[in-house]
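Sample 1 of the test manifest.
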Amino acid sequence: MEGNIGELGQYIGVGLTAFGMGFAALGVGNVAGNFLAGALRNPSAAAGQTATLFIGMAFAEALGIFSFLVALLLMFAV
Amino acid sequence: MATEAHGEATGLSFHPMDQFIVRPLFSDGEVHWYTPTNVTLWMFVIVLATLALLVMGSRGRAIVPTRGQSVAEMAYGMVHKMIADIAGKDGLKYFPYIMTLFMFIVFANLLGLLPMAFTVTSHIAVTGVLALAVIVGVTVIGFVKNGVHFLDLFWIRSAPLAVRPILAVIEVISYFVRPLSLSIRLAGNMIAGHAVIKVFAGFAAIAAVAPVAVVAVVGMYAFEVLVAFVQAYVFTILTCVYLKDALHPSH
Amino acid sequence: MISLLQEAAHTAAEHTESVASSVAHGETETATGLPQLDMTSFGNQIFWLVVALVVLYWIVAKVALPRIGAVLSDRQGAITGDLMAAEEFKLKAREAEAAYDKALADARAEAGKIVAANRAEIQKELDAAIAHADAEIAARVAGSEQRIREIRDSADNDACEVARDVTAELVRAFGGTVDQAAVDQAVDNRMRGALQ
């Protein structure tokens, strides 16, 4: 269990950024769930909106991926 | 550390990032800019795969398509429809360019899932160049087509005058985040998926959890096949969205 | 995920400390840090990416897309052509149906005509046969009547003869002289009334 305090802080920081990915997962689920709810109410309009769905999911996911990037940078680049 | 001790005791060794190392193909020396590396090899394979699908597949030019030709036509139809729906008919001029990006990314992602393969889209250098190619291209198109009116994209006339400068700052920032988010999204998805598969594969060395690990690897693999396609789709669709902004900045 | 990355970092660190341990793990090369952030390989990747993209763009733009586009428009043309041909065939089928109906009606009319003609012919023959039979019957009836009349006439004559003879004999028996002419006259007068 030897190590220095900086390394400890680094790992704690990396662990905290994992929360960011979890919240991104919530966001993506929210997008998909709301799309499904809307699509079930008006199935005829759903087919035309799949592109919008993917764009929305991509934006929601991108922010989670940013936190992943921060984690990687903390792990390997700092 | 505890994990380290555990790993040593059971012979576990995780090297999830080793698969991303750029290695020279023929020597063990330095990687110069011209050195043929595994990147070179897999990009060559991607080009060959595209050639096989799009050119060999449609070799027959059959009215009733063969299987390969159907797939080629499906890819063509999908990207064509995407551009026509999102960027409009005048976006179809850039169809070959967007099709090139789509075929490159989709084959890079899917071929990268083969065992022992190297995923070129998992490298930020590669996805960064792809994203910059899109953003620089789109910006140039925007200025050439619309001149100074392209800046209307940042100066939102439908908003009250007071908030327009604030919105302009936000819009400019979001515009410059676009290449970053494009490249990081693609590379991040690829890195994360491959690393997770590799880690699960590492757990298969422990007999007790090996069945779980194998099932998990199979499940993740199926998920990654989906992600590989969806990320290529998303990259292409966002390219179309940015192209629409460049062609019609006022909307 | 992140904790597993820690593992990676640890094994990487291990590697830098002792090469022997990584050789024991069967690894020839291990990532030191994130390979994606290794700036020395960027030039190489970007160079080959640009080469690959240029080649791919050439293939896609010059060969693949025109060909697939041509195939798709050919198919569209073929489908449109086929639809038009189908429309034509439909029209032809309709015409053929009309012609068939007409032929059927004609055949029916013809058959009706033939039946009527046959019926008339048969009627004619029948009428002729009936007329023939009627004529024959009439002839026979006439012949029979003739014969009956002759028989009756001869019977009348016989009766007259007998009456005359009987009268002559009676007259003789009563002692008169027989005037043959007077007897005949008397008998004929009486007989005319009786026989008629």
